[in-house]
C-alpha cells in the first residue's frame, strides 16, 4: 500500500452504511483506505462499484476512488490488519430485546484485531457503543495478544442518512476520546484537513456524547409532536408555534417540524440504549422514557385522525406514500410507515403503497411503481415520507383519480391552501 505525502493508510472493518461512507470520505480527504468485510457478496459488489444501500452522492465517490486506487475491499483479515496502523471498527450494534446495544460484532472484530496485530495499532470505535466499550474492547484485544502495544479510541459518527456525504465532509465537530498522547497525535494527523471544532476527551465521554446528541434531537421531535396534539385541540397552527420558538437562538429551528414521528437506525436505538445505560447506573431517565412513548404512539394518533375523518377503516382503500423513515434513504428500520401499514391491513383496509426507492416485501399490500397508480380509486391518501416527488406531485390530477378527496399529511409539508382549492379535505398534524 503506497503513500501520498501526509496521507494515512486506514483500515475500515465493516462495509455497511457507516463503514463505507467513512472509508470513502477518508479517501476524499487524501488517505488510502482498505474496506474489510467477511461478507463476500458485499466485497464483490463494492469492488465492482456497486453500493448495497442508497445514499445520495456515494456511488460517484465509490467509482472515483476505485478508479484512482484510493480504496480497495477485501475479505483477507490477516493481511488487512497487519498492513494498516489505524483501524476503524464500523460494525452494527443493533438493539437487544431489553433496549441495550448488542456488541457481539464489535467484540468479534476486537478479537480478530488482537489475533493478527503485528505492531502498534490505533483501534478506532466508530460504531455507536455504550459507555465503557472502549475499555472492554481493550480487554478483548489484550486477551488475544498482550505483547503488541495498541490504543483504543472512541470517535463517534454523526451522519444523517440522506445527507451523510455532506455531513462527513463538513462535520459540526470531531470527537476523539483517548487518554493516549500517541493515539491523539495520529488522530490529529488523520483529521488534519478538518476545519471543525475538535473535542479531545475521555473514551467514556466520547461514547456518551453520541447517545446524548441523538437523544436530545429525539426529545425535540417528541416535544413538538406532543405540542402538535395540543394545537389540534386548541385550533392553533403548530408551524407558527415552531417558527415562533425556533427563532430563539437558545432553542433553534431544527427538529421542530411536527409529524408522524422519528424512525431509522439511530434515534430509536440510541434513546433505548441511553435509558438502559442509566438503569445500569441505578437511574431512570424518565424524560427519555416519555420521548420514546410519545414517538411510539404518534403513528396511532395520526391513524385515529384518519379513521375519524373518513368514517372508519374497514373496507376502505388507502394509498400510503413513502416507506423510508425519511427522504434520501432506502432505510425502513423503525419507519412509521411500517406501523401504519400493519395497522391499516389489520383493520381491513385495502392498501396500495409507493416509494421512489424502497421495494417492500409485504404480501398484504400492493406496491405501485407509479404514484398515480397508487392513488387511483382510493378513499384516502396518506403522505408518510416527505420525498420531494410528493411535494411536486400534480395534486389536481390526483384529485381526478381518487375515489374520495382526503389527504392526510403526516409530515406537514403539503400546501394546504392549494389542496383545498383543488377540492381536497386536508388534514395535517397540529394544522387546524
TrEMBL record:
Q: Which UniProt keywords apply?
A: NAD, Oxidoreductase
Active site (catalytic residues): 266
Catalytic activity, as annotated: UDP-alpha-D-glucose + 2 NAD(+) + H2O = UDP-alpha-D-glucuronate + 2 NADH + 3 H(+)
Q: Which InterPro entries match?
A: 6-PGluconate_DH-like_C_sf (IPR008927), NAD(P)-bd_dom_sf (IPR036291), UDP-Glc/GDP-Man (IPR017476), UDP-Glc/GDP-Man_DH_C (IPR014027), UDP-Glc/GDP-Man_DH_C_sf (IPR036220), UDP-Glc/GDP-Man_DH_dimer (IPR014026), UDP-Glc/GDP-Man_DH_N (IPR001732), UDPglc_DH_bac (IPR028357)
Binding of NAD(+) occurs at 37, 42, 93, 128, 161, 269, 333
Record SMART domains: UDPG_MGDP_dh_C
PANTHER family listed in its UniProt record = UDP-GLUCOSE 6-DEHYDROGENASE TUAD (PTHR43750:SF3)
Q: What is the name of the protein in this document?
A: UDP-glucose 6-dehydrogenase
Can you name the source organism?
Answer: Bacillus timonensis
Taxonomy, top ranks, is: Bacteria, Bacillati, Bacillota, Bacilli, Bacillales
Amino acid at each position: 500500500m503506497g503513500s501520498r505525502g501526509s496521507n494515512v493508510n486506514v483500515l475500515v472493518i465493516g462495509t455497511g452504511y457507516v463503514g463505507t461512507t467513512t472509508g470513502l470520505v477518508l479517501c476524499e480527504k487524501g488517505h488510502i483506505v482498505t474496506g474489510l468485510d467477511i461478507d463476500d457478496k458485499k466485497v464483490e459488489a463494492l469492488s465492482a462499484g456497486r453500493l448495497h444501500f442508497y445514499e445520495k452522492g456515494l456511488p460517484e465517490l465509490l467509482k472515483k476512488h476505485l478508479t484512482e486506487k484510493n480504496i480497495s475491499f477485501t475479505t483477507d483479515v490477516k493481511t488487512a490488519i497487519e498492513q494498516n496502523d489505524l483501524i476503524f471498527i464500523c460494525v452494527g450494534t443493533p438493539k437487544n430485546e431489553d433496549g441495550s446495544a448488542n456488541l457481539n460484532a464489535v467484540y468479534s472484530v476486537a478479537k480478530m484485531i488482537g489475533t493478527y496485530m503485528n505492531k502498534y495499532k490505533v483501534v478506532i470505535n466508530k460504531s455507536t457503543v455504550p459507555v465503557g466499550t472502549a475499555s472492554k474492547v481493550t480487554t478483548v484485544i489484550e486477551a488475544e495478544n498482550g505483547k503488541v502495544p495498541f490504543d483504543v479510541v472512541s470517535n463517534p459518527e454523526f451522519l444523517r442518512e440522506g445527507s451523510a456525504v455532506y455531513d462527513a465532509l463538513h462535520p459540526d465537530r470531531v470527537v476523539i476520546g483517548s487518554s493516549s498522547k500517541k493515539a491523539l497525535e495520529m488522530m490529529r494527523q488523520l483529521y488534519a484537513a478538518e476545519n471543525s471544532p475538535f473535542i479531545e476527551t475521555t473514551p467514556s465521554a466520547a461514547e456518551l456524547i453520541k447517545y446524548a446528541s441523538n437523544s436530545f434531537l429525539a426529545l425535540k421531535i417528541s416535544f413538538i409532536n406532543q405540542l402538535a396534539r395540543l394545537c389540534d385541540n386548541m385550533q392553533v397552527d403548530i408551524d407558527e408555534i415552531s417558527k415562533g420558538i425556533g427563532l430563539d437562538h437558545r432553542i433553534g429551528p431544527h427538529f421542530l417540524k411536527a409529524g408522524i414521528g422519528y424512525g431509522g437506525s439511530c434515534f430509536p436505538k440510541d434513546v433505548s440504549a441511553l435509558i438502559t445505560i442509566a438503569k445500569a447506573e441505578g437511574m431512570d431517565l424518565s424524560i427519555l422514557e416519555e420521548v420514546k412513548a410519545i414517538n411510539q404512539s404518534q403513528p396511532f394518533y395520526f391513524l385515529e385522525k384518519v379513521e375519524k375523518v373518513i368514517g372508519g377503516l374497514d373496507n376502505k382503500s388507502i394509498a400510503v406514500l413513502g416507506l423510508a423513515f425519511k427522504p434520501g434513504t432506502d432505510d425502513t428500520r423503525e419507519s412509521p410507515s411500517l406501523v401504519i401499514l400493519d395497522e391499516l391491513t389489520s383493520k381491513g383496509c385495502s392498501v396500495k403503497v409507493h416509494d421512489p426507492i424502497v421495494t417492500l416485501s409485504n404480501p398484504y399490500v400492493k406496491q405501485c411503481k407509479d404514484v398515480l397508480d397508487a392513488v387511483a380509486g382510493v378513499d384516502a391518501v396518506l403522505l408518510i415520507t416527505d420525498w420531494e416527488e410528493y411535494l411536486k406531485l400534480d395534486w389536481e390530477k390526483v384529485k381526478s383519480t381518487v375515489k374520495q378527496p382526503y389527504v392526510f399529511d403526516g409530515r406537514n409539508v403539503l400546501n394546504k391552501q392549494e389542496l383545498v382549492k383543488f377540492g381536497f379535505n386536508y388534514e395535517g398534524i397540529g394544522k387546524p
